[in-house]
Amino acid sequence: MKYQTVLFDLDGTLLDTLEDLRDGVNVVLERYGYPRHTLEEIREYVGNGAGVLISRALPEGTAPEEIERVLAEYKEWYRIHYCTKTRPYPGVAEVLEKLAAEGVKMAVVSNKPDAVTKELAKKFFPGLPAFGQRNDIPRKPEPQMVWKALETLGADRTRACYVGDSEVDVVTAKNAGLPVVLVSWGFRTKEQLRAAGAETMVDTAAALLEHLEGKSRNTR
Question: Pick the catalytic residue: 9, 11, 20, 169?
Fold first, then answer.
């Protein structure tokens, strides 16, 4: 096994959450008379947490207090409806099962709110430790959540890697001192990932497993 510990991003990496994110944003925007957004627009806005998502979804120049008001309502809606259309990507559950069987330590590290992150991990990947955004720890790309996960797992940083799907994950891994593997099935295109500095990219869950096991031949 190439790595003893693997940390995973959640949205766009393990779970396809995009439709629920879009629906939540649009429900709240409509309540306040703002234009709705397409799935592809929301895809471009996600990755840095709910606050950045709502800021990007609102018209440029929206007052900070209005952003906070819309954000609070979005969080309340999403807290209830976060798992209506969300599903795991094909093959990822099997990857986690295989890694667990081989003794690999694993956890989720996400910019999603901590409670929702834990609930989604519990629902779709029982037993997988999950760390989400909290007020007492900086969100990605700051490295503290990654370090907290490694500490909790009792993991050796030199034998760990981070798996994600966005430029945020590239910077997060760099800040944490970990190699990063990017999946191309998530919220960014291959071109965007390459522009972000991706060195290792996989297109399927099977290819991800091969790379993590040290069996892959071409991961770019």
Answer: 9
